[in-house]
Design brief:
The protein has a three-stranded antiparallel β-sheet with strand order 1-3-2. A three-stranded antiparallel β-sheet has the order 4-6-5. Helix 1 (3-16) packs across helix 3 and helix 6 (105-112) crosses helix 7 (115-125). Helix content is 64%, strand content 14%. The protein is built from ten helices and six strands, in the order H-E-H-H-E-E-H-H-E-H-H-E-E-H-H-H.
Length: 205
């Protein structure tokens, strides 16, 4: 096993942006599975033990996959530097969680359908919600990063709900203002249809 192979696996895990299995790493790098496993063990030893006080990154196992991520100690600060814009649908899901927390994921599925699973994954990756096993489903709550992310000066549930309600409405209005409403399009079509009729009436007179 060479340092070059360690660095190859390290670069792949770092740039993947998602957890990778030994098989996925092996297929991409062409390395034997044993070498991939040894490289991961070396990286975990280096990042998590030997240099744990010298780096903000760590190599962790997620199920049967592995990923490189920012340590929890630095997560909140790094998220606040470059926080991504949240789309309307995802914001609505977040609002539902904030309104009803703690709320079962299965209950949200009945409200908004199968997209809840993708929404929860995305909100968890943004560290805005927390998920904990609850029987056959998951129990969802917002995290302490949640009010900081939106610049809310309060942790009171009713004030957070009021803020999110306005935030969701603002997003919806903004999106609708980009294109004409169905009513405006309908009026426009009616106006076009009436023009020839009015012109014909003048000719008849």
């Amino acid at each position: 096993m060479s340092v070059k192979e360690d660095r190859l696996v390290e670069s792949l895990i770092f740039s993947a942006g998602k957890p990778l299995s030994v098989e996925e790493i092996q297929e991409t790098t062409g390395l034997p599975p044993k070498h991939v496993t040894e490289a991961i063990e070396h990286l975990m030893q280096s990042y998590n033990i030997d240099r744990k006080d010298q780096t903000s990154l760590e190599v962790v196992k997620a199920g049967n996959k592995f990923t490189m991520q920012v340590k929890k100690t630095f997560t909140d600060q790094s998220m606040m530097v470059a926080k991504p814009e949240i789309g309307t649908d995802l914001l609505k899901t977040l609002a539902l969680i904030a309104f009803h927390q703690p709320v079962k994921q299965s209950n949200l599925r009945h409200m908004i359908g199968e997209r809840i699973y993708a929404d929860v994954d995305q909100l968890m990756s943004l560290h805005l919600i927390h998920s904990a096993p609850h029987g056959s489903t998951e129990l969802l709550t917002t995290t302490r990063l949640f009010p900081e992310y939106f610049g809310i000066d309060s942790t009171r549930p009713e004030e957070i709900r009021e803020f999110l309600a306005k935030k969701v409405i603002g997003h919806v209005v903004k999106e609708k203002s980009v294109e004409p409403s169905e009513k405006e399009e309908s009026l426009s079509e009616e106006s076009d249809d009436e023009a020839p009729v009015q012109s014909q009436m003048k000719k008849d007179e």
